[in-house]
Amino acid sequence: MEILAFGVQADEKPMLEAAFAGLHEVRCLDVFLTEDTAPIAAGYEVVSSSVNADLNGRVLRILAAGGTRMIAQRSTGFNNIDLDVARQLGLTVSRVSYYSPYSVAEFAWTLAMAVNRRIVRAATRTRDFDFRLDGLMGRDMHARTVGVLGTGKIGEAFTRIAHGHGMHLLGWDVVRNPACVELGMKYVDKEELFASSDLISLHVPLLGSTRHLVDAAALRLMKDDAILVNSSRGGLIDTEALVAELRAGRFTGVGLDVYEAEAGIFFMDRSLETVEDDTLARLVTFPHVVVTSHQAYYTTDAVSQIIDTTAANVADYLAGRRSENTLVPDPPQAP
């Protein structure tokens, strides 16, 4: 059987082909799965999608009409998939429920330090042989307070890094993580976390209840010299509200690996095109803001796990099995 994989990065292609070697052929495309590209999948029973695929009801109906019966998404998040329509169409949908949490946690800490210590500005200057220190002053993280929203596997890994730097730990989640409590984390409500933290890092999934978790009200609660980092999902932050606060001269720095309107922009070369997204264009002009291209997960360790799990999900589908990675039909219940 031949599997069609959308949105495959150049570094990812040989790993994807190796994972299915001797079992199935894989046709890798660098285009993303959208309403415009979905007809390409006609005749493919199994399709693999990437995190920025747009799997709305129209796309799913095009896939189903073309003979697709299984969608293997190569990511943990699945807010881009209309699962209700997938159920109606009888499609099997899977995701990768777990991969190295250290990849994202380490990158989030890197973003925090990059904006704190003005690394991008300093590196740009030195390329022009400008070695002044003006405007490059940062501050110690030791003994300051970090607020971690979402203390699952990635949030825990980030908490351990912050703990290693001697920070006071505040957390917010629907369920307390005993490992974080053991490290000395104090769980508080969102309002206290926003108001008390010097560094805030987001590690919650994008759900209806978490969309714009960091809204205008939350931003107003934050310290004027706070650092905000988002390596989870762009929709967690109201970007328009964030830009308004940045224009007012607030915050020491903001590190964003994700953006709420990134679909159709991230993972692509737009350098020769006119920027039509005014909010993103304004965001990247602030000298104390660093925006990267949804790359926090992008390590050999994490991508290998993602691809191996995707291959296992396809094998489960062909064998009629369900696992914790199966989104549709509903995953098996724990005994």
TrEMBL record:
InterPro entries with a match to the protein in the record: D-isomer_2_OHA_DH_cat_dom (IPR006139), D-isomer_DH_CS (IPR029753), D-isomer_DH_CS1 (IPR029752), D-isomer_DH_NAD-bd (IPR006140), D-LDH-like (IPR058205), NAD(P)-bd_dom_sf (IPR036291)
Top-level taxon of the source organism: Bacteria
UniProt key word Transferase: no
Keyword vocabulary terms for this entry: NAD, Oxidoreductase
Residue span(s) of domain D-isomer specific 2-hydroxyacid dehydrogenase catalytic: 8-326
Domain D-isomer specific 2-hydroxyacid dehydrogenase NAD-binding positions: 110-296
A Pfam match: 2-Hacid_dh
Family: Belongs to the D-isomer specific 2-hydroxyacid dehydrogenase family.
Name used for this protein in its record: 2-hydroxyacid dehydrogenase
